[in-house]
């Protein structure tokens, strides 16, 4: 079988399939973890305030992350820091506010995600340096962070050890079809690679173009998430937990070297001349000001680096498409992770491998069918 894409989904699925004896060829257009699965810092391993359809996957992923490094024989940088979703306003429309906090907590608990509502004093017991406007918090103690680059590369190495062929600098440009089956892929070097049993399109922002060759449009687009690395001034405090926010675009993670990774939904833009994503200064400033408003010790932090070059695919309802491609019998696609696919990757990859081997769609993946559109 052929997997297109050397991000965390392609590498993790290749590892699961290869260790079960499958003949796996993974083709990556650039290098392993060169896209959204790579870059500086760490990513959130978060269930708190996640789409409810993804929570069963996250419940499984909670059990997989602590042992993943041992399973693949490589560092993942996983830390169970706990996560707090900060709430400042009594009302923020229909999706948030203090009044909704207990309902969110109850539903998350019912779906297997330990969650509690914190009052202002409890928030400050855990995070003494948040601003005084914070009135409550949703606390998920099993949330954490992990090194996305190291994890993805470690999965690729583990897949190789189990016999998978992993090729970089190999772009798939065309597909060969016989009825409803894809029989081969064609690379930019003019090479034809036999697909065999299954073709998995797990190449994130590149998946839509290949699915289009099969006559289907995926309801998704490309964005360039902004990530910043801050160095707190002197002995200034850093966040102790994975922090999100009820109405502000903000995510904070303290890294082992003392820096703080700042993100949360701010975007860069595509530079057509240089053919890459780039930062927008206004958004860099906006992200930093937001961080300082919520966590004042970051007001004097030094910006060490920033990046908006790693494209992400976003779907119209902000959850992924994980399904067979219409009018094909042997093509699976997984794309549209919308900036929060990393945490659930170990669970989804295992289920994708089960799907390929058994031919039956696992129940936890049913909400992500293309047919929902």
How do the strands and helices of this protein lay out in sequence?
Blueprint: E1 2-4, H1 8-18, E2 25-27, E3 43-45, H2 55-72, E4 83-87, H3 98-110, E5 116-118, H4 120-126, E6 136-140, E7 144-146, H5 148-161, E8 165-167, E9 172-178, E10 181-187, E11 192-194, E12 199-201, H6 207-213, E13 220-223, E14 227-231, E15 242-245, E16 251-254, E17 260-263, E18 269-271, E19 276-278, H7 281-294, E20 302-307, E21 312-315, E22 321-324, E23 331-335, H8 345-358
Parallel strand pairs: 1-2, 1-12, 2-8, 4-15, 12-23
Antiparallel strand pairs: 3-7, 4-6, 5-6, 9-10, 10-11, 13-21, 14-17, 14-20, 16-17, 18-19, 22-23
Helix pairs in contact: 1-5, 1-8, 2-8
Q: Provide the CATH superfamily of the largest domain.
A: FAD/NAD(P)-binding domain
First-last Cα distance:
28 Å
**Top CATH class of the largest domain:** Alpha Beta
Regions with little confidence, pLDDT below 50 for 5+ residues = none
Question: Which overall shape is indicated by the principal axes computed on the Cα atoms?
Answer: globular
Describe the structure.
It contains 8 helices and 23 strands. It is an alpha+beta fold and 373 residues long. It folds into 2 domains: 2-74 and 148-222 and 314-372, FAD/NAD(P)-binding domain (3-Layer(bba) Sandwich); 83-141 and 225-309, D-Amino Acid Oxidase, Chain A, domain 2. The protein has a 6-stranded mixed sheet, with helices on both faces. The chain has a 4-stranded mixed sheet with strand order 5-6-4-15. A hairpin with a 6-residue loop joins strand 22 (321-324) and strand 23 (331-335). Helix 1 packs parallel to helix 5 (148-161), helix 1 crosses helix 8 (345-358) and helix 2 packs across helix 8. The longest helix is centred in the N-terminal third of the chain and has 18 residues, at 55-72. The radius of gyration is 21 Å and the shape is globular. The mean pLDDT is 97.
